[in-house]
Design a protein that fits this description.
Layout: E1 9-13, E2 17-20, E3 31-34, E4 39-44, E5 48-51, E6 57-60, E7 64-67, E8 83-86, E9 100-106, E10 109-116, E11 123-125, H1 139-144, H2 151-155, H3 167-173, H4 178-184, E12 190-192, H5 216-225, E13 232-239, H6 246-258, E14 262-269, H7 271-279, E15 285-286, H8 297-304, H9 324-335, H10 339-355, E16 363-365, E17 375-376, E18 391-392
Parallel strand pairs: 1-11, 13-14, 13-15
Antiparallel strand pairs: 1-8, 2-3, 4-7, 4-9, 5-6, 9-10, 12-16, 17-18
Length: 393
């Protein structure tokens, strides 16, 4: 018996892969294997739906259980890619605004959940919603997988999942009280930051540099939603002689993360050792400061946000960020001669980088300079004193 023709439907699709560390590979890049055999369960948020067109009927909605195929693809019981669900915004409207919840379970992975509204006549691709968190015994591999280059997998039409690319996970990590760091660690000699460039840099906009308040309760909730109700562990690499109060800042951030269940271990070291470690991409998480020598935001965006290719593109992008939309903006910024148009592209790139949590910004540093009473000079944003700006009375 078919369902009434007037009810709306939606196609749900998805492809899931597993990322595993293989230290024998050059660069210790993870391998991606299909998440075959995992169970996908789809549950509606309502028990029944009423259809009043034609012959009125009441339909009881039952959960749907599927198994991913050998390639990690969602298939229905007939073997077709995707599964068709009743859509929740049918004109019948009884009830309205209900949702479906997808839960993925299987050997070696923690339960993954995602709620969604099924649009009539549309498609929901579960591949573009949440990343699949690995189980606790694989947390180290999961965190190291943050630095993977996944372009070739994405181009093949598949999606590589690793938990700390999940925006919810990064929101939890971003539950850092920058104002507390300013007061307690920096002695008010810092400006809490939401974007990657400071006020004196071309492209800066104070309206973009507004912080969201640190919210431990929401951060815990988001971490649970991402599949980590008990948090996870990793190592934070940090220099101890590079930036003002660098080690103390890292230790304070670790304490703030602990409030939401994220357990980080501090690994502090001299900058000479630290720099070599970062350049080798031998890190799970790290502290980085950046001053654009050109006083222009392009330098920052190109060096630490652009996909690493050649030359200055991504030359300090140690987290292997690769965002085609931001890359296109940065490439356009390089040659744009219209000042207003260029500024708009710079600010869009800064906004996307902020909102996608590619970096957890802390502060713009303020470094005091000491001099005799009869000496004055210009305190330059790039921290380079120049004698031509100095005067001796």
């Amino acid at each position: 018996m078919n369902i009434p023709a007037g009810l709306g439907t939606c196609l749900v699709t998805g492809t899931f892969l597993r990322a595993l560390i293989d230290s024998a590979d050059a660069g210790r890049e993870p391998d991606a294997t299909p998440l075959s055999g995992a169970k996908l369960r789809l549950v509606p948020s309502v028990d029944h739906v009423r259809y009043s067109g034609g012959t009125p009927v009441i339909m009881a909605l039952a959960p749907i259980e599927l198994t991913l195929d050998a390639n990690g693809v969602v298939r229905d019981q007939a073997g077709q890619a995707g599964v068709t669900l009743l859509a929740s915004d049918s004109a019948d409207g009884d009830p309205v605004l209900w949702t479906w919840e997808a839960t993925l379970t299987g050997e070696g992975i923690a339960p993954w959940r995602h709620r969604f509204v099924a649009p009539v006549g549309g498609t929901v691709d579960l591949s573009s919603t949440r990343r699949v968190p690995l189980s606790p015994e694989r947390e180290l591999a999961a965190w190291q997988a943050v630095i993977i280059e996944a372009e070739r997998i994405v181009e093949s039409g598949r999606h590589l999942y690793y938990p700390l690319k999940d925006v919810s996970g990064n929101v939890s990590l971003a539950a850092v009280d920058r104002n507390a760091i300013k007061r307690q660690v920096m002695r008010d000699m810092s400006i809490p930051a939401a974007i990657l460039v400071a006020p004196d840099v071309d492209g800066y906009d104070k309206d973009l540099d507004k912080l969201q308040p640190a919210d431990t309760k929401t951060a815990k909730s988001l971490l649970t939603e991402a599949g980590y109700p008990n948090g996870f562990e990793f190592t934070l690499d940090c220099p101890n002689n590079r930036y003002v109060n660098d080690e103390q800042t890292c230790q304070t951030v670790i304490g703030m993360w602990a409030r939401v269940g994220v357990k980080a271990k501090l690994n502090a070291m001299p900058f000479s050792t630290y720099s070599a470690k970062l350049q080798a991409r031998d890190t799970s998480a790290y502290m980085l400061g950046w001053i654009p020598s050109t006083f222009d935001a392009q330098n920052t965006l190109q060096s630490i946000v652009h996909t690493r290719t050649s030359g200055d593109d991504g030359n300090w992008n140690q987290g292997r960020i690769s965002d085609p939309e931001i890359d296109a903006l940065i490439d356009a910024i390089k040659g744009e001669t219209d000042a207003a148009k260029r500024l708009g592209m710079v600010q869009k790139a800064l906004t996307l980088t902020r909102d996608r949590y590619y970096y957890i910004t802390l502060h713009h540093l303020m470094k005091p300079w000491a001099m005799r009473k009869n000496v004055t000079t210009v305190h330059r944003s790039n921290e380079w004193p120049e004698s031509k700006y100095a005067r001796i009375d």
